[in-house]
Amino acid sequence: MADLTQVELQNLRHLIGAHEISYQKLNNYSQQCVDPQIKQLFTKSAQDALNTKQKLLSFLNE
């Protein structure tokens, strides 16, 4: 892993947490949707948030 400063590490953790919350909320919205187009939009947005979270987590494992 590259040497991260404490501030960079804190910011990374904050971003990971924010994307996890976004994923959970968007996924929940998707499950409650009746309109198929809106449901698809929420589902894709939730998956994008999860993908970004996983990418950010990979920076901690390098």
Q: How would you sum up this structure, described in words?
A:
With 62 residues, the protein is mainly α. It contains two helices and no strands. The chain has helices spanning 6-32, 36-61. Helix 1 (6-32) runs antiparallel to helix 2. The longest helix is centred in the N-terminal third of the chain and has 27 residues, at 6-32. It is elongated and about 45 Å long. The N and C termini lie close together (4 Å). 10% of the residues are buried. The mean pLDDT is 93.
Topology:
Blueprint: H1 6-32, H2 36-61
Helix pairs in contact: 1-2
Keywords:
62 residues, mainly alpha, 2 helices, 85% helix, 0% strand
Distance between the termini: 4 Å
Structure annotation, total helices: 2
Helix amount: over 70%
Tell me the series of helices and strands, N- to C-terminal.
Answer: HH
Catalogue the unreliable spans: none
Classification by helices and strands: mainly alpha
Could you tell me the strand content as a percent range?
A: under 5%
Please report the total strand number as a whole number.
Answer: 0
- Overall residue-averaged pLDDT value: 93
Gyration radius, rounded: 14 Å
Largest sheet: none
Shape from CA axes? elongated
Brief write-up:
Helix content is 85%, strand content 0%. It has 62 residues and is mainly α.
